[in-house]
Amino acid sequence: IAAPAMEEREVFGEQIPFCEPYWYQGYPSPYYTAKHKEFRARVRKFVEEELKPNIDTWIATGYPRELHERAYAAGIQGIAYPKELGGYQPPDYDAFYELILIDELARMGGGYVLGQMGINSMALPPIIHHGSQYIKDKVCRDVITGKKNICLAISEPYAGSDVAGIKTTARREGDVFVVNGSKKWITGGTMGDFFTTAVRTGGEGMAGISMLLLERDMPGISIRKMATQFDSAHSTTFIDLDNVRVPVENLIGEENMGFMLLLHNFNHERFIIAAAASRCARVCYEEAIKFSMDRHTFGRSLSSHQIIRYKLAEMARQIEALHDNLERVAYQFSQGVPDFQLGGQCALLKVQASKAFEYCAREASQIFGGSSIVREGRGRIVERLYRDVRASAIPGGSEEILLDFAMRQCVSRGRQLLEAKL
């Protein structure tokens, strides 16, 4: 069957090559339906009309909490959640809806407006999949509809990627756990009403970790915002926990089985971070190629210089390869491949994403020159994004940790296969 000519195909958004994913620019894809395209248009309209005009103001002041209710009303925030929990998940829902959502939101070019939406999507799954009906009723509907928010509280001052080393304790006293310790780098803490929290209820290592639901108004919880390298309308926070009394019914899943919940949750978190980093890399490319065609040096446009075209080509190559990998992993999720089988794939995906983002931010800065080191003018978006790079490369597992994790899994499986042949 002959494919329609390019001029007859449906297009969306910017049509300079590689400034949008291939299926926005008229190329066929096996993954996206008319409903995916309708959702894409809905998210873009919301971003263009509600978010982009306010980003600079909200970076200075923080974005308003009620923005989540507006996103829910616009048909965006509830897309990933079933109706019985307050969402409006369509019958054909798959990981590509979420990929579209994160990709379109990341077009803002940094600033983390509506960043809590992504954090909610990371902190809710342990409750949805392992929480009691009591916890689900307490949390899910209010968070999904935008009335409240939930954060993931895992990292500590001395335990980041080494999750099995957390020191925050939860000591059982009758019908409560008494929690003491601290959590660091907790994204969205100033907005959080609930916290999906990793605590130590047993001995050392991964076997002694449990998950508890903490509530903001519990006595003994104090939260402060931390200054960060990157601009944020959201927040990164430090949380102190001083004799916080948490009802036993706030236990998520089984006691001392929390580490497995975290492992399953990490894959989704890394997919989200990778999707956002992919679009951030693409924004760097888009800003750079448009600037290169307008800016003239030595009597000709920047884009007429071979070295500039080389930089742009290498950016485009990495972005397209990354997007193909994102779609491959999204397809595995959509086909029901178990989380535990995707650990290595998601780890490598996130590393590919942060490295591509870093490369594109650097090369875009080189193309913009002095305009990329000031927070005004045409280079301000690239300047802001360059300061975002480490926030993709470190949270959710640093590049070094994830590369090692992927190969440890590979070697372990390889040994099993070799031993089976003996």
Layout of secondary structure:
Layout: H1 34-51, H2 55-61, H3 67-73, H4 95-105, H5 115-123, H6 125-130, H7 133-144, E1 150-153, E2 169-173, E3 176-187, E4 194-200, E5 209-215, E6 221-225, E7 236-247, E8 251-252, H8 258-294, E9 296-297, E10 300-301, H9 306-334, H10 343-368, H11 380-386, H12 389-393, H13 399-421
Parallel strand pairs: 1-4
Antiparallel strand pairs: 2-3, 3-7, 4-5, 5-8, 6-7, 9-10
What profile does the largest beta sheet have? 4 strands, mixed
The helix/strand order is HHHHHHHEEEEEEEEHEEHHHHH
Structural class: alpha+beta
Mean pLDDT: 94
Low-confidence parts: none
| Terminal Cα span | 50 Å
Shape: globular
- Alpha plus pi helix count: 13
Overview in brief:
The chain has 13 helices and ten strands. By secondary structure, the protein is an alpha+beta fold. The longest helix is centred in the middle third of the chain and has 37 residues, at 258-294.
Descriptive notes:
By secondary structure, the protein is α+β, with helices and mostly antiparallel strands. Helices cover 47% and strands 14% of the residues. The protein contains 13 helices and 10 strands. The chain has helices at 34-51, 55-61, 67-73, 95-105, 115-123, 125-130, 133-144, 258-294, 306-334, 343-368, 380-386, 389-393, 399-421, and strands spanning 150-153, 169-173, 176-187, 194-200, 209-215, 221-225, 236-247, 251-252, 296-297, 300-301. The protein has a 4-stranded mixed sheet. Strands 2-3-7-6 form a 4-stranded antiparallel sheet, with no helix packed on it. α8 packs antiparallel against α9 (306-334) and α9 runs antiparallel to α10 (343-368). The termini are far apart.
